[in-house]
Specification:
alpha+beta; Alpha-Beta Plaits; four-stranded antiparallel beta sheet; 4 strands; globular
């Protein structure tokens, strides 16, 4: 199992616009294709104007397949064209849960889907 951490840094003052566009155009396709997010946050302290979201995958192949389906989705493509001008940078990391957290993560995701 893997968790993808995505951090988007926005131009100052653009967070409300980003969140509105994401809620209207991005969240639906992501939730449908990627499943429930492990987490979705905005920064309050530290580097500001950031959103952080986490998505779980059973394998790197699973991630590749689901991300390909996501990027083929017309609504998600429209979302991307609207948010790119708001972004300063995008960061991405693939995280592997510690051995003792694999089962709790699986249970958490299963409870959200059930």
């Amino acid at each position: 199992m893997y968790v993808e951490e995505r951090i988007y840094t926005l131009h100052p003052g653009k967070l409300p616009a980003f969140l509105k566009i994401y809620e209207e155009k991005g969240y639906g396709p992501q939730r449908e294709i990627l499943g429930p997010p492990v987490g979705w946050y905005t920064a309050e302290i530290g580097e500001l104007n950031q959103v952080v979201h986490l998505w779980a995958y059973t394998s790197l192949d699973d991630r590749e397949e689901r991300r390909a389906r996501l990027y083929a989705d017309p609504q998600f493509k429209e979302y991307l064209t609207q948010i790119f001008p708001l972004l300063v940078k995008m960061e991405n990391r693939i995280l592997k849960p510690a051995p003792f957290f694999v089962e709790p993560l699986k249970k958490m995701l299963a409870s959200w889907e059930g």
